[in-house]
Amino acid sequence: MPKAGPIVGTLNRDTMRPELYGVQGWLAFLCVLLFLGVFLGVVRIAGVLMSESVDSVDTAIDLAFDTAYAGFAAYAGLGLVRVWRNALRVAKAYFFVNFASNLLDCVSLFIDGNSTGTKLGISSSILAGAWLAYLYLSDRVQNTYSRPNAEAISNEFR
User: Fold this and answer.
1) In the predicted model, is pLDDT for residue 33 greater than 70?
2) CB count in 10 Å sphere of residue 101
């Protein structure tokens, strides 16, 4: 059996292997994790609003960042599930932002001397980098979100 290579725009639904098509497997798991991140972000925001006053500038900035981050995750996850044409670019941008944010947190915690937080930041950065690599290298992702196929697939999921 020939090895599946990158999409060059000539694949159609008849020539693709069915198990590497659509929002299934690791791609579906990624979507679930994105929506879980949205839920946890909303819970974190609600917890801050219930426990503290938002008089502090730091608290307001944290709330704004958490709200934007949760919204970005929701948009990326919904786009991946609904197979929007720009979904792959949005998801990659989300994980680039996630990766950079985790690295910045890791560096600041390292400077503060928080070894536990530094280890958690490194783990989070590695995880974000792994999902980013998945989005770039997965045959399923390329088959599902390639330009000729995205519109046909999105009609199936509506």
Assistant:
1) yes
2) 16
